Amino acid sequence: MHQTITSLLIIDPQYDFYDVPLNEQLTLVAQPTAISPSLPVPHSWEDAQRLASFINNQQNNINNIVVTLDSHHEYDIAHAIYWQNKDGQHPAPFTLISHQDIVDGLWQPTDQEQLNHLLEYTQSLELTGKYRLIIWPTHCVIDSVGHTVVAPIQTAIDNWEKRKNISHHTISKGENPHTEHYGGCEAEYPLYNDINTQFDPQLATLVVQSDRVFISGQALSHCVASTIEQMVDKLLLDDIRKLTILIDTTSPVAGFEQQAQAFVERMLALGVNIANTTDVMLS
């Protein structure tokens, strides 16, 4: 008799993306500094509680847990210090930088050797209809508190590991400072000289080898959407139908609610399932 293989994919469940309540910020992690999320997604702390409950309640029924980690350096194409204007000032958070801005000299790389790359990069983003290049608050810097998985989710994963006597699997993304990396499968602009920015089949393979895959994480409008779109692009319809977005455990970046809603509607049309954790019955 075939055992049903159930997998859980958690996208970027890291402190910098969670609106951790102030009373929790000092107590959650044994760190010399308080947790101060740099890019908190509204309602994400509630999302984390619901996902942790789902993992704890379904411990016996989950066979695999895969976690992607947004992993950046201070110097990163989507962080302010990568760019400057003619006065040497860095862009403010949420500044959009277009191809024309670079051509006009409005924004230039702090390292002029990157100029040709960035002209090609921004042109490619605009021609392929990808996210515009945006300067985010510096976030998920490797080895920082903000890079760490939030405690409710990490504790639930730890409990699952003890129960199942297996370990979860982690996929790191975003370490190359010269390209953005929203999705867990490939960078926005894959680089020919860095295999880690090129398409990685791990997540598509996870779906093929599973009977059902539940997906959670942050943020619905960006890294969750991008990861799922990259996956469905490589999957057959029967495999796409295995995917379920746990919609009560993921939220959009503030100001990007419409993009998130449009993404959900596209996925429903393709055959992806949308469910609340309370509606999922596993046996």
Residue share in helix: 25-40%
**H/E element order:** EHHEEEHEHEHEHEHHEHE
Which runs of at least 5 residues are low in confidence (pLDDT < 50)?
none
| Sheet having the most strands | 6 strands, parallel
Quote the distance from N terminus to C terminus: 15 Å
Mean pLDDT: 95
Overall radius of gyration = 19 Å
The number of distinct β-strands equals: 10
| CATH architecture title of the largest domain | 3-Layer(aba) Sandwich
Strand percent estimate: 5-15%
Which class of secondary structure composition applies to the elements?
A: alpha/beta
User: For this structure, what is the CATH homologous superfamily of the largest domain?
Assistant: Isochorismatase-like
CATH class of the largest domain: Alpha Beta
Strand order of the largest sheet: 7-2-1-8-9-10
The best one-word shape is: globular
Number of helices: 9
The name of the CATH topology of the largest domain is: Rossmann fold
Number of domains: 2
Architecture blueprint of SSEs:
Elements: E1 6-11, H1 22-25, H2 44-57, E2 64-70, E3 83-84, E4 96-97, H3 99-103, E5 108-109, H4 115-128, E6 133-134, H5 151-164, E7 169-173, H6 202-208, E8 212-217, H7 220-232, H8 237-240, E9 243-246, H9 257-270, E10 273-275
Parallel strand pairs: 1-2, 1-8, 2-7, 8-9, 9-10
Antiparallel strand pairs: 3-5, 4-6
Helix pairs in contact: 2-5, 7-9
